[in-house]
Amino acid sequence: MDGAEASPEAARLVNVEGTRNVVALGAPVVYYSTDYVFDGSKREPYVESDGPRPLSVYGQTKLDGEREVGEGWIVRSSWLFGCTGHNFVRTMLQLGERQDEVAVVADQVGCPTYAGHLAEATKELLGLPQGVWHVAADGECTWAEFARAIFDEAGLACRVREITTEELGRPAPRPAYSVLRSEREEAPRLPHWREGLRACLARL
């Protein structure tokens, strides 16, 4: 997010030009997009027919990447985390083992989605019509609530001090509300985000 804001041309090369190059190969594409194509002003779950309005360079370049996809599935998901790489769960675990307290944003709401559950749902999507799909974990929470759940499930005594997005002071604007739901009856349904968290922690 913030790297895209600092280097918009690099973000465009990856998210737009990179997608265009993959599409040019001529095979159907699964393109993973983001809840950050929305501005968060709706205050109720975003569905596939809602018009995107990104606030950030990251969100805009992901949306532009969506528009490069001809044949394929555009999979919008939310607040992804997993057992590898840099993500919120792994960061909180590292901080929680070293600190008594962490400051976490409490005025953004989303649905943390376990990458393993998203991968399984993607297999289902391949048997469904191409187009835009919203696939995210059931339930919703703030980042602060998510952090508390991580510490609770991991048995860490670290406290969470709630702060605002403004206090955090990140360069890229984030939507205050970016919960995704599907209006398509056949869409895969993911487990609750807390089940995803438990599944992730079990593999760490």
Number of helices: 8
Ends apart, CA distance between termini: 25 Å
If classified by CATH, what would the architecture be? 3-Layer(aba) Sandwich
* Sheet with the most strands: spatial strand order: 1-2-7
Largest sheet: 3 strands, parallel
CATH class, named Alpha Beta
Percent of residues in β-strands = 15-25%
Q: Report the average pLDDT across residues.
A: 97
Structural category is alpha/beta
Specify the CATH homologous superfamily.
Answer: NAD(P)-binding Rossmann-like Domain
Helix content: 25-40%
Supply Rg: 17 Å
CATH topology descriptor: Rossmann fold
The general outline is: globular
Quick one: how many beta strands? Answer: 9
Structural description of this entry:
It is a single chain. With 204 residues, the protein is an alpha/beta fold. The chain has one domain: Rossmann fold (3-Layer(aba) Sandwich), CATH 3.40.50.720. Helices cover 39% and strands 17% of the residues. The chain contains eight helices and nine strands. It has helices spanning 2-6, 8-23, 57-66, 88-98, 115-125, 143-154, 165-168, 193-203, and strands at 29-34, 72-77, 80-81, 101-105, 109-110, 113-114, 131-134, 141-142, 159-163. The strands form four sheets. Strands 1-2-7 form a three-stranded parallel beta sheet, sandwiched between helices. Strand 1, helix 3 and strand 2 (72-77) form a beta-alpha-beta unit. Helix 2 packs parallel to helix 3 (57-66) and helix 6 crosses helix 8 (193-203). The longest helix is centred in the first third of the chain and has 16 residues, at 8-23. The two termini are 25 Å apart. The mean pLDDT is 97.
